[in-house]
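Late entry, written up from scratch paper. The run itself happened at the end of the previous shift, but nothing got recorded in the book at the time, so transcribing now.
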Amino acid sequence: MVQLETSFFKTLKRLLMRWKLISISLSQTFYFISKKNISIVFLILKLLVTVPIFMAMAIFLPPIVQTTVSPVLKFHNAIFLSEISDQQRATETEQLKKNITLLINKFAHFTPRSNYLIVNSAENKFFIYRGKNMIYHGMCSTGSFILLKNGAEQQWLFKTPRGEFQIKSKTRFPVWKKPDWAFIEEGLPVPPANHSSRYEYGVLGEYALSLGDGYLIHGTLYQRFMGLPVTHGCIRLNDKDLEFVYNSLSTGSKVYIY
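Output as recorded:
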Protein backbone atom coordinates (compact mmCIF):
# COMPACT_ATOMS: atom_id res chain seq x y z
CA MET A 1 0.00 0.00 0.00
CA VAL A 2 2.88 2.41 0.86
CA GLN A 3 4.59 1.61 -2.46
CA LEU A 4 1.35 2.28 -4.33
CA GLU A 5 0.88 5.68 -2.67
CA THR A 6 4.54 6.65 -3.40
CA SER A 7 4.13 5.68 -7.04
CA PHE A 8 0.97 7.76 -7.23
CA PHE A 9 2.64 10.95 -5.95
CA LYS A 10 5.72 10.48 -8.13
CA THR A 11 3.61 10.07 -11.24
CA LEU A 12 1.48 13.07 -10.26
CA LYS A 13 4.61 15.19 -9.79
CA ARG A 14 5.97 14.19 -13.21
CA LEU A 15 2.64 15.02 -14.87
CA LEU A 16 2.49 18.42 -13.19
CA MET A 17 6.05 19.27 -14.28
CA ARG A 18 5.30 18.31 -17.88
CA TRP A 19 2.07 20.22 -17.99
CA LYS A 20 3.75 23.23 -16.34
CA LEU A 21 6.28 23.42 -19.14
CA ILE A 22 3.53 23.01 -21.69
CA SER A 23 1.42 25.70 -20.02
CA ILE A 24 4.37 28.16 -19.98
CA SER A 25 4.97 27.59 -23.66
CA LEU A 26 1.29 27.97 -24.46
CA SER A 27 0.97 31.09 -22.32
CA GLN A 28 3.82 32.75 -24.18
CA THR A 29 2.21 31.80 -27.42
CA PHE A 30 -1.18 33.16 -26.36
CA TYR A 31 0.51 36.36 -25.14
CA PHE A 32 1.81 37.09 -28.55
CA ILE A 33 -1.45 36.15 -30.17
CA SER A 34 -3.61 38.50 -28.22
CA LYS A 35 -3.20 40.67 -25.17
CA LYS A 36 -6.92 41.27 -24.93
CA ASN A 37 -7.95 37.69 -24.34
CA ILE A 38 -6.10 37.23 -21.07
CA SER A 39 -9.11 35.69 -19.30
CA ILE A 40 -9.46 33.04 -21.97
CA VAL A 41 -5.78 32.21 -21.71
CA PHE A 42 -5.99 31.77 -17.95
CA LEU A 43 -9.08 29.56 -18.33
CA ILE A 44 -7.23 27.34 -20.76
CA LEU A 45 -4.24 27.20 -18.44
CA LYS A 46 -6.44 26.17 -15.54
CA LEU A 47 -7.91 23.38 -17.63
CA LEU A 48 -4.45 22.25 -18.65
CA VAL A 49 -3.44 22.00 -15.02
CA THR A 50 -6.57 20.52 -13.50
CA VAL A 51 -7.38 17.91 -16.17
CA PRO A 52 -4.18 15.85 -15.64
CA ILE A 53 -4.68 16.04 -11.88
CA PHE A 54 -8.15 14.54 -12.19
CA MET A 55 -6.88 11.95 -14.66
CA ALA A 56 -4.17 10.89 -12.24
CA MET A 57 -6.69 10.72 -9.40
CA ALA A 58 -9.04 8.60 -11.52
CA ILE A 59 -6.21 6.18 -12.26
CA PHE A 60 -4.52 5.86 -8.87
CA LEU A 61 -7.13 6.60 -6.23
CA PRO A 62 -9.37 3.52 -6.75
CA PRO A 63 -6.57 1.03 -6.01
CA ILE A 64 -5.55 3.05 -2.95
CA VAL A 65 -9.12 3.13 -1.67
CA GLN A 66 -9.52 -0.55 -2.42
CA THR A 67 -6.35 -1.48 -0.54
CA THR A 68 -6.99 0.74 2.48
CA VAL A 69 -10.70 1.35 3.02
CA SER A 70 -12.12 -1.94 1.69
CA PRO A 71 -10.22 -4.23 4.09
CA VAL A 72 -11.34 -2.10 7.01
CA LEU A 73 -14.97 -2.29 5.88
CA LYS A 74 -14.71 -6.02 5.27
CA PHE A 75 -13.18 -6.58 8.70
CA HIS A 76 -15.92 -4.52 10.35
CA ASN A 77 -18.66 -6.35 8.43
CA ALA A 78 -17.14 -9.73 9.25
CA ILE A 79 -17.17 -8.95 12.97
CA PHE A 80 -20.72 -7.58 12.76
CA LEU A 81 -22.03 -10.55 10.78
CA SER A 82 -20.21 -12.97 13.06
CA GLU A 83 -21.92 -11.47 16.08
CA ILE A 84 -25.30 -11.64 14.36
CA SER A 85 -24.68 -15.23 13.25
CA ASP A 86 -23.75 -16.31 16.77
CA GLN A 87 -26.86 -14.70 18.17
CA GLN A 88 -29.07 -16.21 15.47
CA ARG A 89 -27.45 -19.61 15.92
CA ALA A 90 -28.08 -19.55 19.65
CA THR A 91 -31.70 -18.44 19.12
CA GLU A 92 -32.37 -21.05 16.45
CA THR A 93 -30.78 -23.80 18.55
CA GLU A 94 -32.93 -22.91 21.52
CA GLN A 95 -36.06 -22.83 19.36
CA LEU A 96 -35.13 -26.21 17.83
CA LYS A 97 -34.79 -27.74 21.28
CA LYS A 98 -38.21 -26.42 22.23
CA ASN A 99 -39.74 -27.83 19.03
CA ILE A 100 -38.17 -31.25 19.64
CA THR A 101 -39.46 -31.31 23.19
CA LEU A 102 -42.92 -30.34 21.97
CA LEU A 103 -42.92 -33.11 19.36
CA ILE A 104 -41.76 -35.68 21.91
CA ASN A 105 -44.59 -34.67 24.22
CA LYS A 106 -47.11 -34.86 21.39
CA PHE A 107 -45.82 -38.27 20.36
CA ALA A 108 -46.07 -39.50 23.94
CA HIS A 109 -49.62 -38.14 24.12
CA PHE A 110 -50.72 -39.99 20.97
CA THR A 111 -48.87 -43.22 21.74
CA PRO A 112 -51.32 -45.78 23.18
CA ARG A 113 -50.37 -47.18 26.57
CA SER A 114 -51.99 -50.51 25.81
CA ASN A 115 -51.00 -52.94 23.06
CA TYR A 116 -51.28 -51.79 19.45
CA LEU A 117 -50.34 -53.11 16.02
CA ILE A 118 -48.14 -51.48 13.38
CA VAL A 119 -48.12 -52.87 9.83
CA ASN A 120 -45.45 -51.97 7.28
CA SER A 121 -47.26 -52.73 4.02
CA ALA A 122 -44.19 -51.90 1.90
CA GLU A 123 -42.05 -54.60 3.53
CA ASN A 124 -44.93 -56.83 4.69
CA LYS A 125 -43.88 -56.80 8.33
CA PHE A 126 -45.88 -56.24 11.50
CA PHE A 127 -45.00 -55.17 15.04
CA ILE A 128 -46.85 -55.37 18.35
CA TYR A 129 -46.04 -52.53 20.76
CA ARG A 130 -46.95 -51.90 24.37
CA GLY A 131 -46.40 -48.19 24.87
CA LYS A 132 -42.95 -47.47 23.43
CA ASN A 133 -41.70 -51.05 23.72
CA MET A 134 -41.95 -53.62 20.94
CA ILE A 135 -43.04 -56.97 22.31
CA TYR A 136 -43.52 -59.01 19.12
CA HIS A 137 -42.90 -58.86 15.36
CA GLY A 138 -43.19 -61.03 12.29
CA MET A 139 -43.95 -61.29 8.59
CA CYS A 140 -47.35 -60.73 6.98
CA SER A 141 -48.94 -60.41 3.56
CA THR A 142 -50.77 -57.32 2.34
CA GLY A 143 -52.55 -56.10 -0.81
CA SER A 144 -51.24 -57.08 -4.23
CA PHE A 145 -52.34 -53.84 -5.96
CA ILE A 146 -53.79 -55.92 -8.78
CA LEU A 147 -56.63 -54.25 -10.67
CA LEU A 148 -59.57 -56.52 -11.52
CA LYS A 149 -62.12 -55.29 -14.05
CA ASN A 150 -65.60 -56.55 -14.85
CA GLY A 151 -66.34 -54.87 -18.15
CA ALA A 152 -66.42 -51.09 -18.16
CA GLU A 153 -68.69 -50.69 -15.14
CA GLN A 154 -66.92 -52.49 -12.29
CA GLN A 155 -63.33 -52.66 -11.12
CA TRP A 156 -61.48 -53.45 -7.89
CA LEU A 157 -57.97 -52.49 -6.82
CA PHE A 158 -56.68 -54.97 -4.26
CA LYS A 159 -54.71 -52.75 -1.88
CA THR A 160 -54.43 -52.60 1.89
CA PRO A 161 -55.69 -49.27 3.23
CA ARG A 162 -53.24 -47.09 5.11
CA GLY A 163 -53.85 -44.97 8.15
CA GLU A 164 -55.06 -45.32 11.72
CA PHE A 165 -57.68 -47.99 12.47
CA GLN A 166 -59.26 -49.78 15.42
CA ILE A 167 -60.15 -53.39 16.01
CA LYS A 168 -63.91 -53.39 15.41
CA SER A 169 -64.55 -57.01 16.41
CA LYS A 170 -62.80 -60.32 17.06
CA THR A 171 -64.00 -63.70 15.81
CA ARG A 172 -62.90 -67.28 16.31
CA PHE A 173 -63.36 -69.74 13.45
CA PRO A 174 -64.47 -67.04 11.03
CA VAL A 175 -66.50 -67.83 7.92
CA TRP A 176 -65.65 -65.96 4.73
CA LYS A 177 -68.57 -64.50 2.84
CA LYS A 178 -67.24 -64.18 -0.68
CA PRO A 179 -67.82 -60.81 -2.35
CA ASP A 180 -68.69 -60.37 -6.02
CA TRP A 181 -65.08 -59.94 -7.13
CA ALA A 182 -64.19 -63.43 -5.80
CA PHE A 183 -66.55 -65.02 -8.34
CA ILE A 184 -65.51 -62.69 -11.16
CA GLU A 185 -61.85 -63.45 -10.45
CA GLU A 186 -62.61 -67.19 -10.83
CA GLY A 187 -64.67 -66.63 -13.94
CA LEU A 188 -67.89 -67.75 -12.25
CA PRO A 189 -71.33 -66.16 -12.37
CA VAL A 190 -72.12 -63.91 -9.41
CA PRO A 191 -74.80 -65.55 -7.18
CA PRO A 192 -77.44 -63.72 -5.12
CA ALA A 193 -76.33 -61.89 -1.98
CA ASN A 194 -77.08 -64.68 0.53
CA HIS A 195 -76.53 -67.70 -1.69
CA SER A 196 -74.87 -70.66 0.02
CA SER A 197 -71.99 -70.61 -2.49
CA ARG A 198 -70.80 -67.35 -0.98
CA TYR A 199 -69.83 -68.93 2.35
CA GLU A 200 -66.53 -70.72 2.80
CA TYR A 201 -65.25 -72.31 6.01
CA GLY A 202 -61.65 -72.75 7.15
CA VAL A 203 -59.98 -70.41 4.64
CA LEU A 204 -59.39 -67.52 7.08
CA GLY A 205 -57.63 -69.47 9.80
CA GLU A 206 -58.75 -69.88 13.39
CA TYR A 207 -58.95 -66.16 14.21
CA ALA A 208 -60.04 -62.94 12.53
CA LEU A 209 -59.92 -59.32 13.66
CA SER A 210 -62.08 -56.82 11.74
CA LEU A 211 -60.79 -53.34 10.78
CA GLY A 212 -64.10 -52.35 9.19
CA ASP A 213 -65.21 -51.98 5.55
CA GLY A 214 -64.59 -55.69 4.93
CA TYR A 215 -60.87 -55.60 5.83
CA LEU A 216 -59.66 -58.33 8.21
CA ILE A 217 -56.53 -59.53 9.93
CA HIS A 218 -56.80 -63.27 9.44
CA GLY A 219 -54.99 -66.52 8.72
CA THR A 220 -54.46 -68.28 5.41
CA LEU A 221 -54.02 -71.63 3.74
CA TYR A 222 -51.05 -70.21 1.81
CA GLN A 223 -48.59 -69.52 4.62
CA ARG A 224 -45.63 -70.00 2.29
CA PHE A 225 -46.48 -66.60 0.78
CA MET A 226 -45.80 -64.70 4.02
CA GLY A 227 -43.82 -61.55 3.28
CA LEU A 228 -45.31 -61.14 -0.20
CA PRO A 229 -48.01 -58.71 -1.40
CA VAL A 230 -50.59 -61.28 -2.51
CA THR A 231 -53.84 -60.46 -0.71
CA HIS A 232 -57.00 -58.72 -1.85
CA GLY A 233 -56.50 -56.03 0.81
CA CYS A 234 -56.67 -57.97 4.08
CA ILE A 235 -53.66 -58.64 6.30
CA ARG A 236 -52.68 -62.30 6.43
CA LEU A 237 -50.65 -63.89 9.23
CA ASN A 238 -49.39 -67.41 9.82
CA ASP A 239 -51.06 -69.47 12.51
CA LYS A 240 -48.60 -68.76 15.32
CA ASP A 241 -48.43 -65.00 14.74
CA LEU A 242 -52.21 -64.75 14.28
CA GLU A 243 -52.84 -66.38 17.65
CA PHE A 244 -50.44 -63.98 19.40
CA VAL A 245 -51.96 -60.92 17.71
CA TYR A 246 -55.48 -62.11 18.51
CA ASN A 247 -54.66 -62.60 22.19
CA SER A 248 -52.65 -59.34 22.43
CA LEU A 249 -55.21 -56.95 20.93
CA SER A 250 -58.65 -56.11 22.24
CA THR A 251 -61.68 -54.54 20.62
CA GLY A 252 -60.79 -50.88 20.26
CA SER A 253 -57.03 -51.48 20.05
CA LYS A 254 -55.20 -49.22 17.62
CA VAL A 255 -53.85 -50.46 14.31
CA TYR A 256 -51.47 -48.29 12.26
CA ILE A 257 -50.85 -49.26 8.65
CA TYR A 258 -48.33 -47.49 6.44
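The two ends are 68 Å apart (CA to CA).
(Scratch paper discarded after transcription.)
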